[in-house]
Amino acid sequence: MRETAVSGTTTLPAPSGPYLDKGLLPADFFAYEELLSDGEREQLESVREFLRTQVAPIVDDYWARAEFPFQLVEGFGRLGLMDWADPDSPESRPSNLLAGFLALELAHVDASVATFAGVHTGLAMGTILTCGSDEQKRRWLPAMSRFEKIGAFGLTEPHGGSDVAGGLQTTARRDGDTWILDGAKRWIGNATFADLVVIWARDVETRHVLGFVVEKDTPGFTATKIENKMALRIVQNADIVLDGCRVPEANRLQNAHSFKDTAKILRQTRSGVAWQAVGVMFAAYEIALQYTKEREQFGRPIGGFQLVQDLLVKMLGNATASCGMMTRLAQLQDAGVFRDEQSALAKAYCTVRMRENVGWARELLAGNGILLDYKVGRFVADAEAIYSYEGTREIQTLIVGRAVTGGLSAFVR
């Protein structure tokens, strides 16, 4: 750790500046990364190296072809990101700040790869960790933590999105020691190749929302890839059909009893999406910054023009403010005191700022901004998906609005 400056009783990293410190991202202007411990920064750097050498060189090609680079999965397993999730592992759970910076780093290279990892580790594994019994955790999590079995999360439906809490149509009917699932899911990432898919369905008798783990090749379960996407093209989103799909009682998540349990998962993963938005902002700024230093017009680099610098500073401000918000949210999470509305505000704010940044980056690259060769176009397109998934800006706004007005709900009933 670098030398520190002391202010009152709080010890903070010395603000030596990311443009002087080797290893910090250029967009980390306030050096937030230095709040991580030395061990955490070492783990972040190992992920950064993997992304730099194994992921970055191939993502444009796979994005253009809308295919998934399966050869990367084994590498993710070797990184040990989720070793702590193995119930028999002696490792302690990493801080939420480290988890946030890992999500940022993934999205900083490619939002599709970040989404793949987020669905597997946050949504699928997170559900089993939160809602599974001890036996279920031991049955599934060790292989998932090593990325030997991949997970997916089935909540969104073809005719429902923001109203999923009350409008869930997929049903579950008890039949002896099995449950029969009927319905459909849409936009389910990883589902075309996942070994385990968490499916949320409504019990026809109690009307409660329950969680089930549907394993690969279960009769009555089909997943069909959604084609012609303009965003997150590497992510293999699927339409799922459940037609008399029989799932054993042993695969019903024993601690999932209502949509409130589903919401616990979403509260955690929503902050992960906000971290992804920060990663995209960082990438857009850094690509634009480098381009404006090299691109010449009227006999000099365009980075020397006032209007260009204005956009660069606006982009840096967005990234810095968003990273600061997410750093504080991670601290609240680590303290166990963060609330739904804080996660909602982070997702809403950061994704709006992300949209601004990618737009300004494309503007600074002019015509080159729409070429995949210059990467900004990929981030522009992928930002549209991040802006919408895990709850739209409008829904997050109403969650925060209800909180700040003392419970006055503006949701449609």
Written account of the structure:
The strands form 3 sheets. Strands 3, 4, 5, 6, 7, 8 and 9 form a 7-stranded mixed sheet that branches. This protein is an alpha+beta fold. The protein has 3 domains: 4-145, Butyryl-Coa Dehydrogenase, subunit A, domain 1 (Orthogonal Bundle), CATH 1.10.540.10; 151-259, Butyryl-CoA Dehydrogenase, subunit A, domain 2, CATH 2.40.110; 262-404, Butyryl-CoA Dehydrogenase, subunit A, domain 3, CATH 1.20.140. 48% of the residues lie in helices and 15% in strands. The chain contains 12 helices and 11 strands. Residues 39-146 form the Acyl-CoA dehydrogenase/oxidase N-terminal domain. Belongs to the acyl-CoA dehydrogenase family. This is Glutaryl-CoA dehydrogenase. Residues 152-245 form the Acyl-CoA oxidase/dehydrogenase middle domain.
Notable traits:
about 425 residues; alpha+beta; Butyryl-Coa Dehydrogenase, subunit A, domain 1; Butyryl-CoA Dehydrogenase, subunit A, domain 2; Butyryl-CoA Dehydrogenase, subunit A, domain 3; 3 domains; two-stranded antiparallel sheet; disordered N terminus; FAD; AcylCo_DH/oxidase_C
Q: What's the structural blueprint in terms of helices and strands?
A:
Elements (H helix, E strand, L loop, with lengths): L3 E4 L2 E4 L24 H18 L3 H7 L7 H7 L16 H14 L1 H21 L2 H12 L5 E4 L9 H4 L3 E5 L2 E11 L7 E8 L5 E7 L5 E5 L12 E11 L10 H36 L1 E2 L2 E2 L4 H30 L4 H26 L10 H13 L4 H12 L9
Parallel strand pairs: 3-6, 4-6
Antiparallel strand pairs: 1-2, 4-5, 5-9, 6-7, 8-9, 10-11
Helix pairs in contact: 1-4, 4-5, 4-8, 5-6, 5-8, 8-9, 8-10, 8-11, 9-10, 10-11, 10-12
